[in-house]
């Protein structure tokens, strides 16, 4: 699934230097004063550290406010059938955006924007204007068609049967409110990539906070002024209007907020429809494989969503389906968003330039360093979820419409996702090696393999496991699929890099990190378990268990990693 909706994003969502001294003829961002783009200078190591830390800070605030938002959302809507209707309608816009054009932006268009800025006489200004015009035109048409086709789109996720008809109809109503997000997602991401090509990363990481603040206010109002319904049939038109309008309004604000930043960076938008003969064909051809990759990912996500919605239909009040799966995945994605995505957003232009300059050793070094440094946080986070998933879910989501019984499936799903964070993060980084070569065909075949494994295992869980545990099994299936995918991707990239991927050093580092995190996780689990018998006020038990278990785990991990002489532990403050 896509983070946040899922991508996500993203990418879902799935996201993603130094500026030199300026002269009198330059703006503060190092661009010529007339607004034309200048080629980006090669970055220093300290520049990468500064860019990564700035993005990580913005992403951390965004994710923190996002957790507050999802906590309030779960408190207001629960994690049963009503929450699933809203959640599925909210994931559809990001899915369609990614299918239309979003998947191509990060993987294909950023390298070409960088090349256009370096190679074109006008610094790539006309290329940017044509590209932005093309993207927004495709999204405007796609958004209108999606709103018209809302019932058919929702039917892919929620079966329209007599038993589920009320939930289906509500999901369609929500979808018509939320599908205009497609255009504003596109506006946000294309303007963000214009900024990224200029090595301006901060705004894209900070503006999602505005969306979270809108939704925090909305769910606070929903709980404070309105009587929240317990069933799909009881929700009122006023409540639907509030949820639909505010949710889309937050995404619109997030996209529009980037306009002042791109203007300050020297970009001036002028619609240009002269698309033929100006290099956009290369972008479209390269994006073809990315579109197929997105289709493969969406196919797997749709199958899992449909199975999870079926679980909600069978146990509508047990919180064992789509909403619980999404809540667990949101928590699980947090380390990936804070660490890996921030690194990749700063690294992708550097890796693209390394390939353009025929410096494969530099590309290999960048990938190896990113994998090893990110692993220092990703590996212990994975074991934290495995050891303390129930306590984390109870602390975040065990409020309002939720209780200890209904929040338990979310904790178990978080544990099932747990260790899959390691290959998921590794796969994300390794694929950027292919994207730096503008190879989108290989990532497509990797996505097909991962999606096929995920679908097969999810189907087995749906058929063989009890309804209570079926979606938890699907979370584990997702982790297994990415483990297989990462191994295949590493072997193929190793071949692309002349048989060298710094594998020995990577295996040594990850071996030490895994041993340290596994032992620390066992200790954290024991400490948290011991805290369950401590007499504390009602509701404080999960907080005490998480604080004590997590603290013990952190101290043990650092001590063991130092004992094993894990050199990467010293690089946490930055990349030196």
From TrEMBL:
The chain crosses the membrane at residues 91-110, 131-158, 170-191, 203-222, 242-265, 286-311, 331-349, 370-393, 413-431, 443-465, 471-493, 513-536, 542-564. Its main location: membrane. One of its GO terms (biological process) is regulation of cell shape. The keyword Nucleotide-binding does not apply. It is a multi-pass membrane protein. Keywords: Cell membrane, Cell shape, Membrane, Peptidoglycan synthesis, Transmembrane, Transmembrane helix. It is found in: Cell membrane. Residues 1-43 are annotated as: Disordered. GO terms for molecular function: lipid-linked peptidoglycan transporter activity. One of its GO terms (cellular component) is plasma membrane. Residues 16-25 have a biased composition (Basic and acidic residues). Residues 1-15 have a biased composition (Polar residues). PANTHER family: LIPID II FLIPPASE MURJ (PTHR47019). This is Murein biosynthesis integral membrane protein MurJ. It comes from Streptomyces gilvosporeus.
